[in-house]
Design brief:
Blueprint: E1 19-26, E2 33-34, E3 41-43, E4 50-54, E5 56-58, E6 61-68, E7 71-77, E8 85-86, H1 91-94, E9 98-106, E10 114-120, E11 122-126, E12 129-133, E13 136-138, E14 151-153, H2 155-158, E15 162-166, E16 171-175, E17 187-193, E18 199-207, E19 210-218, E20 226-228, E21 246-251, E22 254-268, E23 271-281, E24 299-303, H3 305-308, E25 311-316, E26 321-326, E27 341-342, E28 352-353, E29 356-357, H4 362-365, E30 373-377, E31 380-381, H5 387-394, E32 401-408, E33 411-418
Length: 426
């Protein structure tokens, strides 16, 4: 019997496949705003073809500074998001934006679509580059306390530049598309820019000895290696998988219940990755993703940041191609979860709640239970902390020893976990 991991009820945003739903955005007046915002206007400094922006990683997420007037904000770069967003509603008044209306915001997750404010216009300074937008979605993921970022920039920005992501140097370099040349040695993959504003590519996936080609969304905002749609209309599940359903991730509409397993191989052009831990979200977590046109490819998953960070990445939406240049010392692929703790993307005002525990994992063996609260990690308080510490809590390197302060039955106790992978892979 397969046991379903309990799902948390909160509506949270962990980026990825964010889309405005419905044919229009409602306005206070009779006029309507189009569903897909127009492309932003991007201006490079005179006489320059590139702009360099330092970034930091929050978990696997790329975060960088942007300025709106005198305000400094932090954004994530999310190639899986079709719309630019600000998380917190107070930015409308603080930045002097005009409220244009409301939108239903859909995306991955098993919850309901959220209602957000559409406001604008807005001018964002990213290093020496200026991006002007007619509108931005505000108030998506506002309940995520402790996040180190204020908003996300995705398909709009990437449609106007070539983005070079150097994970080793922690540098984002934005190129004028007309002057960009792909570097020698890069594997170049054709992509297709979809009507949703995100790009997809084809990849060969081998499961239990059978190889098939699938279209995958390029998704910097996803923590996993690879996600393939499960269910009857999705991809076959591998024989090597957990015996229990789990929360495979989080989208704009909340948790994605499904399966986790290991595929034989993933091939991206001449690049092959073997024994890839892969998530298989079920159809209930995919219902809010915007449907594409009849002439567009059938999307069956997404390529996440845990694979992309193994390369210097060149995202060329204008040229509809992706370049991957292997790093000299690539980081290991994600194990998905090495402690067995299931928790939400961000802590509450006290710490990270234990939503559930995966059977047979270190957390289960050490007696952690759903409903308990993790107050500290190695002595560091977790109240209102975000994705950075969640990654250390759920997926530290195998062999890592974690000291947890746990609230149980009104008291506190210390628990020591030793992380280990869910699957033995080569």
């Amino acid at each position: 019997m397969r046991r379903a991991i309990r799902r948390a009820p909160r509506l949270l945003l962990l980026t990825g496949l964010l889309a405005l739903t419905g044919p229009t955005l409602s306005r206070p007046a009779a006029a309507q705003v189009r569903m897909r915002p127009p492309a932003p206007e991007v201006t490079f400094p005179e006489g320059r073809d590139t702009v360099d922006i330092p970034f930091e990683l929050a978990g696997h997420l790329i975060t960088f500074e942007g300025r709106v007037g005198d305000e400094s904000l932090r954004f994530i770069l999310d190639s899986g998001a079709s719309s630019a967003v600000l998380r917190e509603s107070h930015w409308v008044e603080r930045l002097g934006l005009e409220v244009l209306g409301e939108a239903r915001v859909g995306g991955a997750g098993s919850g309901e679509a959220a209602t957000a404010t559409v406001a604008g216009p807005i001018v964002i300074q990213i290093g020496d580059l200026t991006m002007s937008r007619d509108m931005i979605v505000v108030g998506v993921g506002e309940d995520m306390a402790g996040m180190s970022w204020n908003g996300a920039l995705g398909g709009g920005l990437l449609s106007q530049v070539v983005a070079e992501i150097d994970y080793g140097a922690s540098r984002l370099r934005l190129h004028r598309p007309e002057s960009f040349e792909m570097p020698p040695g890069a594997t170049v993959l054709p992509t297709r820019l979809l009507s949703s504003g995100v790009a997809a590519l084809q990849a060969d996936v081998t499961i239990d000895g059978v190889t098939a080609t699938y279209w995958l969304v390029l998704d910097l905002g996803a923590f996993h290696n690879l996600s393939l749609n499960g269910g009857e209309e999705g991809v076959p599940l591998p024989a090597r998988r957990l015996e229990h359903s789990v929360t495979t991730g989080w989208g704009a509409q909340g948790p994605l219940p499904g399966e986790v397993g290991v595929i034989d191989a993933l091939r991206l052009g001449d690049i092959e990755l073997r024994d890839v831990v892969t998530t298989f979200p079920g159809p209930e977590g995919l219902r809010g993703i915007r449907r594409l046109g009849a002439d567009e490819p059938r999307i069956l998953g997404n390529l996440g940041s845990a694979i992309l960070r193994r390369f210097t990445v060149f995202i060329d939406h204008p040229g509809e191609r992706l370049g991957l240049l292997p790093r000299a010392t690539p980081p290991p692929l994600s194990n998905f979860n090495t402690t067995g703790i299931v928790s939400e993307p961000a802590a509450n005002e006290e710490g990270f709640p234990v939503d559930d525990v995966i059977p047979g994992t270190p957390a289960a063996e050490d007696g952690l239970k759903p409903g308990e609260l993790i107050l500290a990690l190695d002595g560091e308080p977790l109240a209102n902390r975000g994705i950075e510490l969640r990654s250390r809590l759920l997926d530290p390197p195998p062999g890592s020893e974690l000291g947890l302060t746990v609230r149980r039955d009104g008291g506190e106790l210390e628990v020591t976990l030793v992380a280990r992978p869910l699957f033995e892979v080569s």
